[in-house]
Every structure is written in structure tokens, then in C-alpha cells.
Amino acid sequence: MSxxxxxxxxxxxxxxxxxxxxxxxxxxxxxxxxLLILLFVFREAAPLFHPSEFAALDSSIYQASETYxxxxxxxxxxxxxxxxxxxxxxxxxxxxxxxxxxFGSQWQPVSDRPKYGLAPLxxxxxxxxxxxxxxAGPLGILSALFVTAFAxxxxxxxxxxxxxxxxxxxxxxxGFFALTILASVLQTLLGLxxxxxxxxxxxxxxxxxxxxxxTITEDALNAxxxxxxxxxxxxxxxxxxxxxFVALPAATPGVLAxxxxxxxxxxxxxxxxxxxxxxxxxxxxxPVEPVRTMSATIGAEMAEVVxxxxxxxxxxxxxxxxxxxxxxxxxxxxxYVRQRLRRRFGGG
Amino acid sequence: MKKFLxxxxxxxxxxxxxxxxxxxxxxxxxxxxxxxxxxxxVYMTSHPDxxxxxxxxxxxxxxxxxxxxxxxxxxxxxxxKPGEREKLKQRYNSLGVEVKTARDGLSVYLHSDNPVxxxxxxxxxxxxxxxxxxxxxxxxxxxxxxxxxxxNSSGTYVYFKDNVLQSADFAPALQSLPGTAAVVNxxxxxxxxxxxxxxxxxxxxxxxxxxxxxxxPAYEPTEENIKKGLYPIxxxxxxxxxxxxxxxxxxxxxWILSPDGQKLVAETGYFPIR
Lengths: 348, 274
What we know:
The structure holds two protein chains of two kinds. By secondary structure, chain A is an all-alpha fold. Chain A contains 14 helices and two strands. Chain A has helices at residues 3-45, 55-67, 69-78, 81-94, 119-150, 153-165, 171-190, 198-223, 226-234, 239-250, 252-268, 271-276, 294-301, 310-346; strands at residues 107-108, 115-116. Chain A is globular, with a radius of gyration of 27 Å. In chain B, helix 3 runs parallel beside helix 4 (82-92). Chain B has two domains: 21-103 and 235-267, Periplasmic binding protein-like II (D-Maltodextrin-Binding Protein, domain 2); 107-228, 3-Layer(aba) Sandwich (D-Maltodextrin-Binding Protein, domain 2). Residues 12-19 of chain B have low confidence and may be disordered. Chain B contains ten helices and 13 strands. In chain B, 38% of the residues lie in helices and 23% in strands. Chain B is an alpha/beta fold. The termini of chain B are far apart. In chain B, helix 6 links the parallel strand 7 and strand 8. The chains are: A mainly alpha, B alpha/beta.
């Protein structure tokens, strides 16, 4: 080996090492950024679990509202007796009950007696998400099945990118479409009492979820070994029988993963639900009543909230709940289901 | 570099000169920020020796700054609370000086096909707190009332809650929408809808005339009615001071109340008080 060759080789190693280090650094940086965001969200929500940290703040608010006694009494005399009951309940929250105050059934954060009940928001989030999946699931899976098993090559060539293009649609555009057009159409068609409701929001949300379910299901169907379908067809099964009874069952873990990822997307989506669901914090299971979701609540209220206030911590606590739910679901989709998919085809 | 030097030379006298300038600090209501900034801008062009610094933050923030002595003027879109007056008295032995600078009105919208044309304040309160849920209870069709309003981060929400609902909570069925335009749009498409917000012009909605109490005449939110104080859902926009103004502060307040200052009130979309 001549000395000059050795130098170029050495140079190459240096360049390679630098490039590798930079890439590694970037990867760690993005991971660190995610961890720091997480830490931040958890830290801001933490005071809720140490009500004593609010003690000073609370007592001052409480004193202020006490000097306002006369005005509140006026309001009570005009209202019903139930208002008085809520008052007592939330007075407990205000004197520093912290996280236990979030189990209530009323979301009235801007009030003389703020009530931070998360139940209507949690139910709202699940309601809208389930409605979205109810539409997006069958549609996404069936269209993936159509594209992989039945569509002629030419049709497949543009159908697949077209559906995937829907994933790049800005959610604010979908939300605006739902707010102005979809809501009116649904109201006239179904004779709904409320223009903006969970059904409208869920339907609009399904537009954002369909591409996810479609893409992942399609991948899973393509990953099914050709030998399986060929064997089925060779045994005399029709195209339809092969697709539904051979390919689809073989791809079940992937389909499940697509549904879970779709769920995560729908659960965290903010703009569409903020615009299309009416944002009323009702404690109800009726799908055609307005709902307020957790994500929309953060989106609408975070901008004006008093920093360090209970309301502020509660909003971060909602963020923590959202994170835990989506993390669990996406995690399940990633690790468990993918693993099973690999074992099924990898070993076999 | 040359440019930088010229810039520095230009700026130097400004920085040095500011020491001799009288500075008036104004802090408070977000509703009033734009108006207060307009006042400050126009006033400073005609009075180069005076600097007016305007910051927002909310009425409560402004008043506590007044109590802490960090601002000269507190802007407030609500009257001072007794507790705040008490604190001010403890520190400065004064209950503060209240200056009414402008008026602001809030409209209630109905769908133009709605047979209801006027409501009393009590009826509006009962509708928005959920005690009245059917239009027939206020002389309309037999149909459920659909409530539209603003997000709870909005000043309009708080204003309506404080003044019309007298601090009672909104019914949970209130659909909160982002922006007055969204509320108007929703009411225009909903024959059984009711909404509130600033002045707005749109097809499909009409203004609800409001009566202060049962039997009293109902007024529409026209400029005339708001100016005269006949329309019941209107508020004053206040400035609070620690003591009777003197010197530059007095001149500034006098100018705000003068026709020149009041002209800007109308330009920013509120109603002059004189």
C-alpha cells in the first residue's frame, strides 16, 4: 500500500465518521426534543397533583369572590337551587382539591366558581373518534381491498395516489368544508336539531383518517405472500373468495394496526373538531348533539389562559391524557401488531 | 458600516432626549388596546415631548398594576371591583378616579325568519343559562332554542356572562364558535339559533331588540340608542387613575375626552360618550 493511497483512505474514513456522527446527532436531537416536550407537558400539569401549590392563589381568588357575595347571591336568587349545589362543589375545587376536581361532570373553567370536570370532554373525544372510525374503517379497508385485489392496473395507478393525497389535505380546509357545507347537508338530509354535532365532526374527521387506514391496510395486503392467493385461486376459489377469505384474514394484524393508528390520528386531531362539532361540553352519548373534545378544548382555551393558574394546569393535564391514550394505542399498533405480522409471514 | 453610523447618529438624540420626556404608562383591558394605541399614536404626533406607552393584559392586570404603582392609567372594560378599591385605599388612601372614555355595545342576533323580535334582559339570561329552552316560552315557535356564543377565552364571552348572565354560568349546551363571524354565520343558517357579538352585517340575521325589564320598551342596538344609553347591553370603557390627574396626565385625559380624542373612538368601532 503506497502512502498516498493510505492518506485518501484515511480522509475517506474521516468524512465517513463525520457524516455518521452528524446523522446520529440529529437523530438523538429529535429524540431529545420529543422527550423535552413530554417533560414540559408533564411538568406543567404536575401542580394539579400538589394542590398546596395553588393554596396561595386559591385563597386570594376565594377572598375576592367572597367580597363579591352580594352579586353572587343575586345571581342565585334568579337561578335554580341546582346552581347553589354546583357552587358548593366547585368551592371545594377552588380551595385546592387539585386533580380530584377533574372528575366532575361540568366544564366551566371561566366562572366565579370554576368547574373543571373532564367527563364531558373525555366522552366527547371518544364519541367523535368512534364515529370517525365507524365511517373510515370500512371505507378504508374495503377500498384497500379493492385496489389490491380487483382494480385494473390503470385504475390502481391513479386511485392509490389519489386516496393518499387526501392525507395531505390541510385539516383546517376539511374543517371549513364541514362547517359550511357538510353540516347543512346533513341537517337537511337527516332533519337534525343541531347543525354542528358529533356526527358532522366525526364524518369530517373520517376524511382525515381514511388515508391512514387505506395506506396501512394496503401495505398489509400487499405483504401477504403471493403463494397464498395463488394457492387459493388454483384450488378454484373465485377472486372475491380469495380476497375476502384468504388475503384479508392473513392481513388481519396489519388491518388492526391501521385502525389503531387511525384512532390515534382522530383522537388527537384538533382543527376539524374545533370547527365542526359545536364545542358544547354536554355529558351525553347522543351522536347528533354537539360535543367538545379534549383536543379542541386545549386549542380554544390555551391562548388566553392565565399562566400558572389551575385552569392552565388542567389544560396541560388534558394534554397528558391525550398523550397517554394516543401513545398507548400507537405503541400497541407499532410493537404488538407489527410483531405478530412479522412472525406470521417471517416464519412461514 | 456607514449606514449603521448614520442610523446610530439619528437614534442617539432620540435615546438621549427621552430622559427629558414625560412618560405616561397605560395598561389593562385587551378590548381597549387598539383604541388606547390609536389615542397614544395620535397624541404623540401632536405632543412630541410626551411618550405614551400602552400595554394590554386584561382589565384585572391593569388594575393590579395601578395598585402596585407600575402604571399611571389602568384601562378597564368593567368597573373596578370593591376588593380592588379596598386595596387601592389601603395603599394610597384614595378610592381611585374613574374616567368613562367610551361606550361599547353587544348585539343579540336572531335568524331573520324568527317571529321573536324582542327579548328582555331576564329572558336572554334565562335562555343562555338553560332555564328557557323552547322559543314558545318567549312568544316564538314551538322549537328548541339553539345557543351559539364565543369561546371562553374571548372578552365578549366574559362581558356577556358578567353583564347579561350576572356572572351565572352558561348552559352546557352553548356551542362556542371561534369569532363573531362564525356566530353570525351559524345563526344565519339556523332558524332556531340565537347568538351574540359585536355589530355585524349579514344576510339571514336580524338584531334582537332588548328591553331592560318586562314592560320596559325594547331598543335595537343602533348607534343612537347605545350613545344615549337606552340599549341595555352596553358597557363603559373606563380609565382608572390613583388620584386626580395633574400636569401631562391631565392634559392627556382632557384630550381623550375632547372631540379629537372621541373622534378616534368612533373610528375604532366603539361609541363616543360625548
